[in-house]
Amino acid sequence: xxxxxxxxxxxxxxxxxxxxxxxxxxxxxxxxxxxxxxxxxxxxxxxxxxxxxxxxxxxxxxxxxxxxxxxxxxxxxxxxxxxxxxxxxxxxxxxxxxxxxxxxxxxxxxxxxxxxxxxxxxxxxxxxxxxxxxxxxxxxxxxxxxxxxxxxxxxxxxxxxxxxxxxxxxxxxxxxxxxxxxxxxxxxxxxxxxxxxxxxxxxxxxxxxxxxxxxxxxxxxxxxxxxxxxxxxxxxxxxxxxxxxxxxxxxxxxxxxxxxxxxxxxxxxxxxxxxxxxxxxxxxxxxxxxxxxxxxxxxxxxxxxxxxxxxxxxxxxxxxxxxxxxxxxxxxxxxxxxxxxxxxxxxxxxxxxxxxxxxxxxxxxxxxxxxxxxxxxxxxxxxxxxxxxxxxxxxx
Length: 396
What we know:
- The protein is built from three helices and 28 strands.
- Strand 7 (144-148) and strand 8 (157-162) form a beta hairpin.
- It is 10% helix and 47% strand.
């Protein structure tokens, strides 16, 4: 709830001079005896009411409440020990990936989850070898985009799942294709590696009719798209002739690329909303691999900092209100990760916002997506040490 416009933040007095005059001189008739006592009564009211109000406002606007979150364990398909959520749509549907480690490698399986319901997408992608798929994004229509590697590991391919059916695609002339984002129109954004040129990567957009558009490298050596909004604008990373990577976003009807610079050397954009706000991570200390989450808004890149006890952070999701989620961790090894949400100009540890008692059983390690209702998807570690895909629903 926002503060009334007539009241200045940090003050219990109206900002409008006319309202201030009316407050100081109440326009009510009063007898002569009451008039003599009125100044004393006015001072009594001021001391007993206005002063505590001023102290309350000085401590911070009381109407900008921070929610607590209900944690929902979304589970994992049968046979898998761990899982993690990557994206959530407006209906609370979650794109997630399950995993289990065997003697040789880690097997992964894409699935679609809702509270109390789970659909194994990996089985549909490759029925004969369903253990090498991952889910990246989901739109409001419930279409899920992801990537899988066939059993012969000949190439990486993109896929789109919708209503029990799967479309698999490989950009013509490519050896590998990754699908990383999908918007409400069904447009898919990602990257592909040109065949016979293993270090040449281009960004692409796949139209709903299957048409594939090569976005090239935006003047750089390589480029990849991580996300796409409902306007068809994409965000990702592009490298220059010196080998430095920079976050970028395309803008306007002509999708002109804008390279985002200003905070550090290498940077990467992971998500954007429909007003062109972009989030990601920027490398501040190459020697120690220290990254900080950033928010690009109104033409500026803002360093979102880190949680106490950590020195690195990365942002992975943003909603229409500009609320950002990500992970804060220690060192370049992604150790001791903690999920966070950026609200009212401050990064907040999600573990401190869970309902009472929940934090004793769960540790939120990653926050990867947030919808316009404020629901957050990510991963949490339980008492057994396994990670599970979780959905955090705000409760105010």
